[in-house]
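Progress narrative, Year 2. Work on Remorin C-terminal domain-containing protein from Brassica campestris advanced from sequence curation to structure prediction during this period.
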Amino acid sequence: MAEEEPKKVTETVNNVSEPSPSLPAPAEKAVAAPQEKPVAPPPPASVEEKREDSKALVPIVAKEVEEEKKEGSINRDAVLARVETEKRMSLIKAWEEAEKCKVENKAEKKLSSIESWENNKKAAVEAELKKIEEQLEKKKAEYVELMKNKIAQIHKQAEEKRAMIEARRGEEVLKAEELAAKYRASGTAPKKLFGFM
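Result:
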């Protein structure tokens, strides 16, 4: 188990791209200590085992560095292509957002014009309705006054008829009184009694 831990430490250090196969295991462990939990120091290994471990790791590191150099131009081309693609995608996205914004603004403008048209038409209809209501109110007032005049005229005619009847009644009462006085004075009886004869 003690032999496996130095290998892990050197692999993590080598992955950080620090090719240092000549460093001893304790120095490598000190570098990796902040990343891993502190572990009890391994029992001292022989110098030959350390050399074998470092020799085994050196060719891997050298191969990785060589592969990185060979793949550097390929990676750069891939990275440049990816950057170009991302740039194109961001331009497309910006264009799409701008087009959507234009469409939204156009729709909002049309909706607001429709709303203002609707409000104008409603106001015109309401004004016409008020005008008609005012005309109706005026006609109603005229008809009410006309009817009141008719009622007053009917009342006046009724009063006149009542007055005529009262006058006629008074005249007839006077006539009857005069006839009664005449019959009394002459001592004769009237020809018609109570309208039975």
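Confidence is low (pLDDT under 50) at residues 1-5, 7-36, 55-59. Helices lie at 4-15, 25-32, 47-186.
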